[in-house]
Design goal:
Radius of gyration: 18 Å
Structural class: mainly beta
Number of helices: 2
Strand order of the largest sheet: 5-3-4-6-7
Distance between the termini: 60 Å
Number of domains: 1
Length: about 100
Amino acid sequence: MVRAAPTHGGIVTRGCAYHAAVPTIRQCSRQTCREPAIATLTYVYADSMAVLGPLSASAEPHGYDLCAHHAERMSAPKGWSVLRIVEPADGAAAPSGA
């Protein structure tokens, strides 16, 4: 007998519907840090650039989620530039070179 996967509001869930209804808070990618992530760091290797922006909508395989402390202290390898994308209060992202 094959059972249909349970759904919650049209979302297929595995196990309890509670987990589908509760948003997941992503943690900082730094190994020993358990703080909530507020920014996502990605690297553009072709341009030798590190890009730090608002937390991505979903976890990205080549991105690193960082907490406020680690995002503030983030630095790029020697010879690389850092592009910090700051999200203003109105929600539109604006780049900031640092």
